Each structure stands twice: as C-alpha cells, then as structure tokens.
Amino acid sequence: MIISNFDQTRFLSEYWQKKPCIIRGFIPDFVDPIDEHELAGLAQEEDIDSRVVSFKSNKWTATQGPFDDFTTVCVGAWTLLVQGVDRYIDEVDELTELVNFIPNWRLDDVMISFSNEGAGVGPHTDEYDVFIIQGKGERRWQVGLPDEYKESIPHPLLKQIEGFTPVIDEVLKPGDVVYIPPKHPHNGVALSDCINYSIGFRAPSSLEVLTGIIDENIIDPSSAVRYTDQQLLQLRNASTRSAAVDKKEIEIIKQQLFELLQSEQAEHAILQMLSRQSLPNDDEGISAYALEDVHSALSLGTTLARMTGVKPVYAADQDSEEYTFFIDGNRFSIIQALREPIEIILNNKQVVIGIDIDEDTLNWPEFISLVTELINAGYWVFLE
Ligand code: SIN
Ligand code: CO
C-alpha cells in the first residue's frame, strides 16, 4: 500500500475506488503554491466556504467562516479548511492536472487545510475519493477499511467516527500523497505546522442525476410523450380493482421514462449538469474582445490559456452536425469540422495557436467567433 514509483495504469487498476495507498514523492521538490496567511485571507471572503476545527481542553469545536477574527477560533490544536481554492489560485488549479487521468466531470474541488502541531479534524469517513497532497510540514495519516463504524457528533458541525483499525499508518512529507477511496475511515494528525491539499472527486447518485436532468431545464416539455391506454382491457384484467395499478401500466410509465432518458436532450442535460462547478462570478478583469481583435491575434500567433478552475466537459461520441461542449453549466457548439482544434483548446491548460486564415479547408470565421465568445465569457485569456 506504499507506492514509491507511481504508475498511472497500475494505480487505476489496483487502487482507484478500491484500496487506499500512500504515494511517496508524487511531486518531487514540492513547493507550496500558497501559505497559511493567504489561506486565512481567502477564509475572510463572503463567498468562499471555510471552517475552523479546534480541539482544546478535550473539547471539539467547529466554526463556519467567513472569519473577521481568527484569534477566538484558532485555539488549542486547530485546522483551518478552505474549499474550492482551485477556482481562485492558478497554481492550485494546476495541481489538478497531476491527476487528469481522472476525467474533469468527476473532479469536485481542491480543499486546502492548515493545521498547527497536534491538530486534525478527527477520525471520519467521506463519500468521495480524495488525493491528499502533503505540503509543508509533516502529518501522520491513519487509514482503515470500510465497515459499520459508530458515528459520533462532538459538535453540531463535525461528524466523526468513534475509532477504526488502521491498515495504513504513515508520516507524510512534502510531495507525498495519501489516496483515500470513499467510505474508508481516516485520521490525519499534524506533527508540525502543516498544509494539505485535498483533490476531491464527486460521484453523483442516480437520484441526484434524475433531479439534475429536470433542474437543467433543457428537455422541452412538448417532446415528452403522454401516457395513453387505448387498449385498457389488455392492460388490466377484468378482476383488477379500481384502486389497483396494474404491473403493465407501471411498465409503460417506466418505459416512457427510459425513452426520455435515451433522448439527445436528456444527454445534454446530464452533460450540462456534470459540467457545473460554481466558478466565481467575477466580471472584473474580463475583457470584451471584438471579433477583429481575436482574428488578428490568432492569425499573428498567440497563446491561449484556460482560466483558473475552468474544467470543460463534452461527450466523447458525437455524430450530429454540431459538436457541443459545456463549461460550468453553459453550452457551446460549433460545426463538427472544427471539432479537432476546439478539443485541443479544451484539453490543454495552454495552447500556442496560429491560424492561416486564407486556408479555406476550415471554417475559420466560426472558430474565431467561438474563441471570442469563450474569452469574453472569462473562460480563456490571451497570454501576453
Ligand atoms: C484535512 O486536510 O485536515 C482534512 C482532510 C480530510 O480528512 O478529509
Ligand atoms: Co476526510
């Protein structure tokens, strides 16, 4: 369960979603992209989700941010946890590229914690897969196997379990990683002031997908077929009572639902839902480019960079005339002929790009118009 030479294929077949492991030296010479002061700055922001968990005089306390004053909450052994930092700091977003063998749509966020010596959030389980990168300092990680653990709630905002038998008990140093699959109990205790980066993954339940499909509001109500029962006698035998619903009637309803889920609109609704990431709504600094500006930049040659946190999503198999992709709940499309250059942009953090506008094999005006739209939406920028 300790890997010293990380091999992606072996990791995916033996560990991902199955077994926890420690990956030693996953990031050689790791340098923290943030320090505790910057993290505290983020925890002061209204729209950033943060928490402080402390343990003092045998008592656990959890406080939800934002924080004006840390002195009253950061007492005893304490941990400051900030969610979604990958949406604000580009170097933190880049950490997610290290695990891009897991698809964008499964990524949730990067949560960063700072703990002082002896601190942790206590033993607990999560529903999600997580890679926890050790930044500065050292932390002892214990990880166990799934079981029926007794839950304890030492504070209304803190869920723990009463204890578990570790199958991993290791001290992590900067650049090491612990991978923890869902439902595996774990407990990290800081041996010195330390920073941890948790790259968390999501896995929607079928019920969440079903409600998500409706909430996305993509399916045109007039395309939904309505129940009919012209052959009522064949559906219900003569003795069926009026309050009873025949099994065949339920089958028809289920079949209609199944057909609805098979539609292209439902597929788009699923993709749109999977693309949602709650990117910050910050219009400041977004440039409004005219088509001509983008045209001349692209024909002169430039570098296009994907903005912090942006994780596009598209269906790998698409054979209709339009090629469609989604970013944070927004849908974009372009003619299939331009699929390849757009996919290169979608799949790389930075792309050096130069187009020969006179080459008439591709429909460049459409391409330029889409790139302009993506830049003006704040999803890409030109690098100077
Ligand atoms: C932490 O970074 O302190 C908590 C991470 C976790 O156990 O999920
Ligand atoms: Co956890």
* N to C succession of SSEs: EHEHEEEHEEEEEEEEEHHHHHEEEHEHE
Strands, total number? 19
Q: What is the arithmetic mean of pLDDT? A: 94
CATH class of the largest domain: Mainly Beta
Features:
9-stranded mixed beta sheet, binds cobalt (II) ion, 26% strand, Malonyl-Coenzyme A Acyl Carrier Protein, domain 2, 10 helices, 3-stranded antiparallel beta sheet, alpha+beta, Jelly Rolls, 384 residues
Walkthrough of the structure:
- The chain has 384 residues and is α+β, with helices and mostly antiparallel strands.
- It folds into three domains: 200 residues, Jelly Rolls, CATH 2.60.120.650; 69 residues, no CATH class; 93 residues, Malonyl-Coenzyme A Acyl Carrier Protein, domain 2 (3-Layer(aba) Sandwich), CATH 3.40.366.
- The protein is 25% helix and 26% strand.
- Helix 4 packs across helix 7 and helix 8 packs across helix 10.
- The two termini are 45 Å apart.
- Bound molecules: succinic acid and cobalt (II) ion.
